[in-house]
Design brief:
By secondary structure, the protein is of the alpha/beta class. Helices cover about 45% and strands about 15% of the residues.
Length: about 375
């Protein structure tokens, strides 16, 4: 079990739930970072008393520094601040709850210091999975997944030998528009897209869940986390979100992890692993469960999922380009600057336009990320 944590992205949904879980189990908060929500950051800082806070936005950082001038909290700015939070000596675990490729450098810095990585930032492995997993292996740093699906797979594989795994069964609810044709979604609003039927999540990840790009990102992430190929992963639509994922072993046995759809559970496990502790969350009541149903994905209705799986097979910088383009497109959609169906068009267009580099180094990955973002803004911006 960890003793102190740095939470990168503390004002988002995962960050807030991480702080609640840490308080419940008695883990100290050593550092907090936010992009620009300084009012909430100030509340958190005064409650949890971290020794260091960082704000990514420079103007917001100045305002935050003034707001906490009566405390002894040190304040950092920008990427330099995130890197300091990720490498703080007093913290033995870094929770990466930031959104987008901004989490990549801090994660690699934390790995270099042999911190445990409680990984909630999908883009870190989607963009640079090969690089990150190699660094973790070389440094002996633990990566414990926080995503409910990857946490489920992680738990199902505990104590298993590598040769015992036959395939991963990656489950997904199908989102709020499950079964609807793409032509029916032309006029979808941000409010409709973020209204997930089972999970309470941030806006960006909720939209990704609606388009099923989120499941595609998880597909790529699972490849790297568990050292498997795309052919070793099967996506299963499970609308009730009770089974969070499964593994099929070489003898045909299937092991599933079940629980209520609450991100607090995998977050707490990432902090207590390999131990378990009583949680503050509701327990699963089998007598009140509805039927558990399963379907195959319809790739014509979920082209973002198909695109991500194709990028996983292409490898190299293809998943990075897709993820970066999707991130920009989703934020444009949330600002009502882009239609819902155009999110896929933006991501697919970037993959076609930006060249793929295999076995890329960090600089090349960041260049691919930037090129994808520029393409979307230039092609789909006002």
């Amino acid at each position: 079990m960890v003793k102190a944590i740095s939470v990168l992205g503390c004002t988002g949904s995962i960050g807030r739930q991480t702080l609640a879980a840490a308080e419940h189990i008695g883990v100290r908060v050593a550092a907090l970072t936010a992009q620009r929500k300084i009012d909430l950051l100030e509340q958190q800082a005064r409650k949890y008393r971290p020794q260091f806070c960082a704000v990514y936005d420079e103007q917001a950082a100045k305002a935050f520094k003034t707001a906490v001038a009566d405390t002894d909290i040190r304040v950092g700015v920008g990427m330099e601040g995130l890197l300091e939070a990720a490498t703080l000596a007093e913290s033995d675990c870094v929770v990466t709850a930031v959104s987008g490729a901004v989490g990549l450098k801090p994660t690699l810095a934390a790995i270099a210091e042999k911190k445990r990585i409680a990984l909630a930032n999908k883009e870190t492995l989607v963009c640079a999975g090969e690089l990150v997993m190699r660094a973790a292996k070389e440094k002996g740093a633990e990566i414990v997944p926080v995503d409910s699906e990857h946490s489920a797979i992680f738990q199902c594989l505990m104590g298993r030998k590598p040769g015992e795994l036959h395939r991963i069964l990656l489950t997904g609810s199908g989102g709020p528009f499950r079964g609807k044709a793409r032509s029916e979604l032309e006029s979808v609003t941000p409010e409709q897209a973020v209204a997930h039927p089972n999970w309470s999540m941030g806006a960006k990840i909720s939209v990704d869940s609606a388009t099923m790009m989120n499941k595609g990102l998880e597909f790529v992430e699972a490849m790297h986390l568990f050292g498997v190929t795309p052919d070793d992963i099967t996506v299963v639509i499970h609308p009730q979100s009770v089974i969070h994922s499964m593994v099929e072993l070489c003898d045909g046995t299937v092991i599933a992890q079940l629980g209520v759809p609450d991100m607090g559970l995998p977050i707490q496990l990432a902090l207590t692993y390999p131990e378990r502790m009583p949680s503050m969350f509701e327990h699963l009541d089998f007598y009140h469960l509805r039927d558990l149903t399963f379907e195959a994905p319809d790739y014509e209705k979920t082209p973002c999922l198909k695109l991500a799986m194709d990028c996983a097979r292409t490898g190299g910088t293809a998943p990075c380009v897709m993820s970066a383009a999707n991130e920009v497109a989703v934020h444009m959609f949330l600002r009502r600057e882009l239609g819902y169906n155009r999110i896929y068009d933006a991501a697919a267009g970037a993959v076609e336009k930006v060249g793929v580099v295999q076995h890329a180094d960090l600089d090349t990955i960041l260049e691919a990320d930037a090129a994808a973002r520029a393409y979307v803004l230039e092609t789909f911006g006002k």
